[in-house]
Amino acid sequence: MSTTSTKLKEVKLYIDGEYVESSSNSLFEVKNPATQEVIAKVHEASYEDVDRACNAARRAFEEGPWRTMTLSERSAKIRRMAEIIMERKDELARLEAEDVGKPYPVALEREIPRAANNLKFFADFMEQKGNESYPMDDEYLNYTRYEPLGVASLITPWNLPFMLTTWKLGPCLAAGNTAVIKPAETTPLTVSLLGEIAKEAGIPDGVVNVIHGFGTESAGEYMTTHPEVDLISFTGETSTGKAIMKNGADTLKKVSFELGGKAANIVFEDANLDKAIPVSIQAAFMNSGQVCLAGSRILVQRSIFDEFVERFKQAASELKVGDPQDAETDMGPVVSEEHYKKVTSYLKIAEEENSTLVYGGKRPDLPEHLKDGYYLEPTIYIQEDPNARICQEEIFGPIVTLIPFDTEEEALEIANNTEYGLNGVIWTDNLQRAHRVSHHVRAGTIWVNCWFVRDLRVPFGGFKKSGVGREGGNSSIEFFTEAKNVCIAL
Ligand code: NAD
């Protein structure tokens, strides 16, 4: 399949168990970022549509049977969704590649299976999770129940559309809530199929609703202010998180935010560079650098700096930039024209800040059918000043900065000199240093001698402006439930 063989799709809203058109008859276009070809016309949800979706979710929550069915029955339906996703994984991966511009093998081998696993994991986790109990001598017994909370707004970004939506939907459904989902306006294709997948799996109508639209004064804002919504799980930019928090305040919605990042990837002189370099390349350029967990600030100890730069540059030059549908492609375009402009604006900023260009910095040479795609070469700068904008701002594209340091203290100071705190990466063969530095980097996830390894049971989220709350395992279940204590006199 080639990026040019797509046919125009019509993407409708999924409300109360059926696909419907926008009540305002408003449609917007979605383009393939590798070609600029229009691939879909999407129905934009009006306020009335969002209102219908939220009311349907409320009805499905209050009237059942979703909330009241047995946990094993509910979990079986969620597991069935996971199975259907795996049965349709090729189609979903093709769509994700077409919509986001990510290499098809990455979607097929990693993201779609992970999406299925998000659902399966939380169905299993909820079933296996016991309840706490606190006996008070022989007089009383306390036990804690985790009950569903209500209607959840699930809002996701464009970089990992299907994976991140199921990451929220899994615990939301497993806990017995109902959902109104909105994928990013740039990448709605795969998430729109969750409606039919839920239906086929036997999820009752109204439990899963999928709407489409934009943020401010559009579907996003409506679903975060709507009185029937009890909680909001949002992944996206820090500035959007702030707006959502304000919008949800009047109706006291519970919020969980996974926001931006600017991770330090710290390479000490005793690191195994044979491992550190290929993984740092992944951390820098996977999904064209459009990963919240990207290791976009690479701090390298000065004694190995020159060697690291040479080898890192060589490895970047070996990445194959090209057609996302091609099995050989390592890196596709960035997601949209607007984002391309943002990412490439940093080339000028880097120049103005006297950064040294090590590699990249321009459009790659590509075949004719990709000439309009939003492509940028993997781009590497050296910048000595950690306060420079390219070291501080989330570029969210294939641009990384190498920053030299002399001592462990200096590395920590640079690593923590950011408003973000989502994750950090440490490369060292010194066990004590690995622990010491892990404890001092102010971020929610630290990877030592690895990156992007995920156990769905562990808490995931950000310090500082990288998030509010945690997702994963018990953290997700606590967010999507109300804890109730029952105290019985014995
Ligand atoms: P974004 O904040 O622009 O949009 C995310 C979603 O929010 C979209 O669906 C959008 O339509 C919606 N939205 C926008 N304004 C809104 C409003 N006022 N009210 C309600 N909804 C609104 O983010 P993006 O550009 O799509 O994604 C990139 C960002 O996501 C980066 O900052 C990245 O770091 C972050 N991200 C974080 C994680 C994480 O786990 N921490 C994971 C992936 C991406």
Description:
The chain is an alpha/beta fold and 490 residues long. The protein is 39% helix and 21% strand. It has helices at residues 47-63, 71-87, 89-100, 104-128, 161-174, 189-192, 194-200, 219-225, 238-249, 273-285, 302-317, 337-352, 389-392, 408-416, 431-440, 473-479, and strands at residues 9-11, 13-15, 18-20, 27-31, 38-43, 133-136, 140-148, 151-155, 178-182, 208-210, 231-235, 254-258, 264-267, 297-301, 356-359, 379-382, 399-405, 420-421, 423-427, 445-448, 463-464, 467-468, 481-489. Helix 15 (431-440) links the parallel strand 19 and strand 20 (445-448). The longest helix has 25 residues, at 104-128. The protein starts with 8 loop residues before the first strand and ends with a strand. Bound molecules: nicotinamide-adenine-dinucleotide (NAD). Nicotinamide-adenine-dinucleotide (NAD) binds at residues 155-159, 164, 182, 184-185, 214-216, 220-221, 224, 235-237, 240, 243-244, 258-261, 292, 394, 396, 422, 462, 467. Residues 155-159, 164, 182, 184-185, 214-216, 220-221, 224, 235-237, 240, 243-244, 258-261, 292, 394, 396, 422, 462, 467 line the site of nicotinamide-adenine-dinucleotide (NAD).
Attribute tags:
binds nicotinamide-adenine-dinucleotide; 21% strand; Aldehyde Dehydrogenase, Chain A, domain 1; 490 residues; alpha/beta; six-stranded mixed β-sheet; globular
Topology:
Elements: E1 9-11, E2 13-15, E3 18-20, E4 27-31, E5 38-43, H1 47-63, H2 71-87, H3 89-100, H4 104-128, E6 133-136, E7 140-148, E8 151-155, H5 161-174, E9 178-182, H6 189-192, H7 194-200, E10 208-210, H8 219-225, E11 231-235, H9 238-249, E12 254-258, E13 264-267, H10 273-285, E14 297-301, H11 302-317, H12 337-352, E15 356-359, E16 379-382, H13 389-392, E17 399-405, H14 408-416, E18 420-421, E19 423-427, H15 431-440, E20 445-448, E21 463-464, E22 467-468, H16 473-479, E23 481-489
Parallel strand pairs: 1-5, 8-9, 8-11, 9-10, 11-12, 13-14, 13-19, 14-17, 16-17, 19-20
Antiparallel strand pairs: 2-3, 4-5, 6-7, 7-23, 12-22, 15-16, 18-21
Helix pairs in contact: 2-4, 3-4, 4-5, 10-11
Bound molecules: nicotinamide-adenine-dinucleotide (NAD).
Nicotinamide-adenine-dinucleotide (NAD) binds next to α8 and α9.
